[in-house]
Amino acid sequence: MGLGMLMVWSASTPYAQRQFKDPYFFVKRHAVFLTISLGLGVLFSRLRISVYRKLAWLALFLAVVLVMLTFTPLGYGVGGNRNWLNLGGSSSMWRLQPAEFAKLALVVWGAAVLATKRDLLHEVKHVLVPFVLFACGLIGLVVLQKDLGTAIILATLMLGMLWCVGAQFRVIGSLIALFSAGTAAMVIFEPSRMARILGFLDPTADPTGINHQPIRAIYGLATGGWLGVGLGSSRQKWGALSEAHTDFVLAIIGEELGLLGTLCVFALFITLAWGGFRIAMRSSTFFGRLVAAGVTLWLTMQALINILVVLQWAPVLGVPLPFVSYGGSATLANVLAIAALVACARDEPEALAWSQQRARSATPRRHFSTVLPGRRRP
């Protein structure tokens, strides 16, 4: 998150000055979002993992309601996707992207449902109802927002959680075939999506149109070399790469901090993945294991998709880089996900034993005194 704050400041200054006459417009907003997120993150990390389980259905309900509100006058579109809520009237400060919170809701709710049905998951009907049925409904709402990138992440997250609980391969395979057919249909019947696929298949085509951002991202990575051109010295952020502080922030990292800085970002996400799956293996409850696995799958998978897009190894999907890209809703959702992961870590047997030992050592000892004539001796 510290690296994200630094790169949002560096990548957004030209665009912020041009659009808002304030080079620090985006970094100031990002600082506000990050402060709020960290405060709530600390609070939620102190909750017991059992509290998350009790709030699972409420989290799903709120996520569905928020996503549905995007189809009311409160919702508005960005880049053809109607996936935002404007909660501040004419002000753009308080805008919310409900689909980001739908990812966390799916993890917590899905873990609660699958943990409850743990002994019945060998039967297909107990896998399909209610987990797959409700999850597909939530994914369908996101698809109606025309946010294909988030829908793909939600679908992959659902499949990953089914794999973690040992669901039958025929169920997972059928769902993969269904989602693949649906994705293909949405691409074929949507000209803008089809253009992205064709641009991905021919990376040199239309360099000022559909391939403008990917080509400029590669220019940035190539210019950076081993050690980069220096922090703040990017050339691509000066109008060529309009999404420099959001989806393509990794290209600015590669340009300014070089291959070494890019590899450091990769190392941070690898460390996060290792720590997350380690917690998932050691959690004392099945629910905690699923929450930890779901959060880790979500964050690492989203990071991988963003990295592949910037490297032109995948078509543009509009997926931000967790903790690094600018975005208030994504930052808050990501921090809350880490808070849930920390709560799972605190529920490990070793962590519980350490907490109990620490509590015993912190208990004040009782002092006894004997009263003798003329003085008090401890």
Give a topology summary.
Layout (H helix, E strand, L loop, with lengths): L1 H19 L4 H21 L3 H6 L1 H14 L5 E4 L2 E6 L8 E2 L1 H19 L7 H21 L3 H17 L4 H20 L2 H11 L10 H13 L24 H34 L3 H25 L17 H18 L3 H14 L7 E3 L2 E3 L1
Antiparallel strand pairs: 1-2, 2-3, 4-5
Radius of gyration: 24 Å
Regions with pLDDT < 50 over 5+ consecutive residues? none
Number of helices: 14
Question: Which percent bin holds the helix content?
Answer: 55-70%
Count the E strands.
5
Terminal Cα separation, in Å? 53 Å
EC number: 2.4.99.28
Family: Belongs to the SEDS family. FtsW subfamily.
Subcellular location: Cell membrane
Function: Peptidoglycan polymerase that is essential for cell division.
Overview of the structural elements:
This protein is mainly alpha-helical and 378 residues long. It has two domains: 1-46 and 207-354, no CATH class; 55-189, no CATH class. 67% of the residues lie in helices and 5% in strands. The chain is built from 14 helices and five strands. It has helices spanning 2-20, 25-45, 49-54, 56-69, 98-116, 124-144, 148-164, 169-188, 191-201, 212-224, 249-282, 286-310, 328-345, 349-362, and strands at residues 75-78, 81-86, 95-96, 370-372, 375-377. The strands form two sheets. The protein has a three-stranded antiparallel sheet with strand order 1-2-3, with helices on one face. Strands 4-5 form a two-stranded antiparallel ribbon. Strand 4 and strand 5 form a beta hairpin. Helix 4 runs antiparallel to helix 5, helix 5 runs parallel beside helix 13 (328-345) and helix 12 (286-310) runs antiparallel to helix 13. The chain starts with a helix and ends with a strand. The mean pLDDT is 91. Its EC number is 2.4.99.28. It comes from Propioniciclava flava. Peptidoglycan polymerase that is essential for cell division. InterPro entries: FtsW (IPR013437), FtsW/RodA (IPR001182). Belongs to the SEDS family. FtsW subfamily.
